[in-house]
Amino acid sequence: MIRVESKKLSSEDCQALARITISAKKGTPLESDKSVGEIAAGIEKLSSSNEVQLLVAQDEGGVILGWIYYYVDIPPMAFINGFFPIIEPTDRSEEIALAIIEAAKRYTIERGFTRLEIEMKLQTDAHRTTSQKYVNWYEKCDFQFAAEEVHMSSDLTSLNLLSTNLPKNCILKKLAEVSYDQLEKAGLQTFNDSEDDLFLSMKHAEREVNLKYFFDMSKPFIEDASLILERDGKVIGFVITRMRDNDAEIGPIGLVPEARGQGLANYLLGYALKNLKDNGLTRATLDMSIANKPARKLYKKYGFEDVYYKQFYFWSPGTSK
């Protein structure tokens, strides 16, 4: 019998989970040079966080078999980030993995959440190959494919970014000058009629939560590269930029349907990138759905190149087969 539960971890538990983590990742593209102590310290930190749900699998004798953690700080959605669950490699590995995933689903329901999502970063072909084992586990637990995205990067130092004129009849504002209600309305119009597969896989309430995260003015943003385009008193376009790992991360960027095909996205992106470069930043990054071919064409124009890919799978209560 396999028991999976959320429990207060002792230092010995964290050490055991760290050893399992090293064993599970050995000989795979996920292997790292971190010591047992370093990994155990990270697990202990996770276990004490209110933003995280951490589950541990044990056998009948209390021997730890594997674990998983996921973020629960953005209800009603929970997010698994990485290649989880982490399982002690045995002939029971799949059985243990499925028990852990099913337990995560139960805890998701108990919290009243409506979505459990996993994101796997595919940095190389070897990562993509390794991901298949995890995909098989999740699909056996009724998870559905949501989207594949590409993470792109542009070297701003190599771009010749010229000043451009504000499009006719448009007003350019900074993010803080526009109300959230205006942004939410424009965001829903933009992404509900888009090729953003991840957003479109969400329920309406989940989409609203996503937009609150996108447009959250309490999170630091780059003022000169977080711009709102208005026409006739209505928000028709936006680009939001924040710092992440010393790079300027762009997103979201979009236009309401009636504003497309007029060069406005080109204006917004080019203006934001020029401001970033003028402020001394050297690199910009963004994520986009691989299905969004018009956006990819625009980003390529501004030097964005593929760096790695990400796949998303999700489960919602009531979607089991």
Overall description:
By secondary structure, this protein is an alpha+beta fold. The protein folds into two domains: 139 residues, Gcn5-related N-acetyltransferase (GNAT) (Aminopeptidase); 153 residues, Aminopeptidase (3-Layer(aba) Sandwich), CATH 3.40.630.30. Helix content is 35%, strand content 30%. It contains nine helices and 13 strands. Strands 1, 2, 3, 4, 5, 6, 7, 8, 9, 10, 11, 12 and 13 form a 13-stranded mixed beta sheet that branches. The protein is elongated and about 70 Å long.
Give a short synopsis of this structure.
The chain is an alpha+beta fold. It has helices spanning 11-25, 36-47, 93-110, 125-140, 180-192, 197-200, 204-214, 264-278, 293-301; strands at 3-5, 52-58, 64-74, 77-81, 86-87, 115-122, 144-155, 170-174, 227-231, 234-244, 247-255, 283-289, 305-315.
